[in-house]
């Protein structure tokens, strides 16, 4: 099992953060934005370690008791707040789709207490664009007059959906995808991979270290990814009738778990980008290297125009779903308008 809290890439940002923190110039609130799996949570944990590390070094040592407990997620002053999807935290078993006012009230109550074991209390709020309006407003009041020794870190892949007055109270940290060679180097250094294994993995994860860590650690993720790629290959070859039936099942799955289906559609977009790139004969740039034979096969049969058309249709499907269009009609339209081989 590899340590999933290690930051890969983003070195300039880490240097700036650790210099500011060691000079006592940390912000009381950060907003870390960037694509999924790019390392937002790892950078948040890096900030928590830099604030609490026992050594005098400028960068967190990663080995002292504070750093160690933060990376193992057992530090009592470093708390991650996530959507209570099964209602466990609220104690009523009701599914939540937003960060609730109760969760923010708990932060507000605790943050005026002294840190228990470290120097700073750190609250990391995941998917912070999904805080309810009242939760956002409650948090805003705390950020207007932040207590000493408290740092609140918002994480979001859609920062434009966060209350602007909240955003204006934070220091912004915008993460971009990690350069492939930097990612490869990070995989060798941190996870002791062989050169060729690191190279292959770095190609697969599209600049997102979080995907690499999941591919190394998580058998369920590997199976999910493989199943989703099987599906898109099936659909690329299916006739209109099979696709139409499939559209109905996608709609049902979307209603059951919206985020899971969006993740699948995102992977399909990535796969179709690979087919488009392959249609130009540039196979060494494709992401899904383990599927290169099938990708070349479909690239030859579809050609670049149809691939580009499919990508446009998938993009517009994502936009419609974000705008809450009727999912059943949206998936039906997707299936009927994608170019086919037959
Ligand atoms: Zn340390």
Following the backbone from N to C, one meets helices and strands in this order, namely HEHHEHEHEHEHHHHHHHH
Tally of individual domains: 2
Architecture of the largest domain in CATH? 3-Layer(aba) Sandwich
For the biggest β-sheet, the strand order reads 2-3-4-1-5
Bound small molecules, which ones? Answer: zinc ion
Total beta strand runs: 5
By helix and strand content, what is the structural category? alpha/beta
Radius of gyration based on Cα positions: 22 Å
Distance separating the two termini: 46 Å
Beta strand %:
5-15%
- Helix % is 55-70%
Descriptive notes:
With 342 residues, the protein is of the alpha/beta class. The protein has 2 domains: 11-174, Rossmann fold (3-Layer(aba) Sandwich); 218-337, Zinc Finger, Delta Prime, domain 3, CATH 1.20.272. The protein has 14 helices and 5 strands. Strand 2 (78-81), helix 4 (101-111) and strand 3 (121-125) form a beta-alpha-beta unit. Helix 4 runs parallel beside helix 5 (133-144) and helix 7 packs across helix 8. It is globular and about 65 Å long. It binds zinc ion (ZN). Zinc ion (ZN) is lined by residues 53-55, 60-61, 64, 66-67.
Features:
alpha/beta; Rossmann fold; Zinc Finger, Delta Prime, domain 3; 56% helix; 7% strand; binds zinc ion
Short note summarizing the structure:
By secondary structure, this protein is an alpha/beta fold.
Q: What layout of secondary structure does this protein have?
A:
Layout: H1 11-22, E1 29-33, H2 40-52, H3 65-71, E2 78-81, H4 101-111, E3 121-125, H5 133-144, E4 150-156, H6 164-167, E5 171-174, H7 180-191, H8 195-204, H9 209-217, H10 219-237, H11 240-256, H12 258-279, H13 292-322, H14 327-337
Parallel strand pairs: 1-4, 1-5, 2-3, 3-4
Helix pairs in contact: 1-2, 2-3, 4-5, 7-8, 10-12, 11-12, 11-14, 12-13, 13-14
Zinc ion is lined by residues 53-55, 60-61, 64, 66-67.
């Amino acid at each position: 099992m590899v340590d999933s809290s290690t930051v890969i890439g983003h070195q300039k940002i880490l240097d700036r953060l650790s210099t500011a923190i060691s000079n006592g110039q940390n912000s009381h609130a950060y907003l870390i934005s960037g694509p999924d799996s790019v390392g937002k949570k790892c950078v948040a944990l890096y900030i928590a370690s830099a604030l609490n590390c026992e050594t005098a070094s400028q960068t967190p040592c990663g080995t002292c008791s504070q750093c160690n407990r933060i990376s193992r997620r057992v530090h009592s002053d470093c708390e991650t707040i996530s959507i209570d999807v099964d209602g466990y935290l609220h104690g009523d078993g009701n599914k939540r789709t937003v960060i609730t006012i109760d969760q923010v009230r708990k932060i507000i109550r605790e943050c005026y207490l002294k840190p228990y074991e470290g120097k700073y209390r750190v609250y990391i709020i995941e998917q912070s664009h999904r805080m309810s309006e009242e939760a956002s407003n409650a948090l805003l009041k705390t950020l207007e007059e932040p207590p000493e020794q408290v740092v609140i870190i918002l994480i979001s892949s859609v920062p434009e959906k966060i209350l602007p007055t909240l955003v204006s109270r934070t220091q912004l940290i915008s993460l971009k995808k990690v350069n492939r060679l930097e990612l490869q180097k990070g995989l060798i250094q941190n996870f002791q991979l062989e050169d060729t294994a690191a190279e292959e993995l770095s190609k697969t994860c599209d600049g997102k270290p979080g995907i690499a860590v999941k591919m190394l650690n998580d058998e369920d993720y590997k199976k999910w990814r493989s199943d989703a790629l099987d599906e898109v290959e099936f659909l690329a070859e299916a006739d209109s009738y099979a696709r139409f039936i499939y559209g109905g099942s996608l709609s049902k799955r979307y209603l059951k778990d919206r985020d899971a289906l969006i993740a699948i559609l995102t992977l399909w977009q990535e796969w179709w980008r690979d087919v488009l790139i392959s249609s130009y004969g540039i196979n060494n740039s494709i992401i899904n290297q383990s599927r290169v034979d099938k990708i070349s096969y479909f690239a030859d049969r579809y050609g670049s125009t149809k691939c580009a058309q499919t990508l446009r249709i998938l993009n517009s499907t994502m936009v419609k779903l974000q705008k809450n269009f009727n999912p059943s009609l949206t998936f039906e339209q997707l299936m009927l308008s994608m170019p086919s081989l037959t």
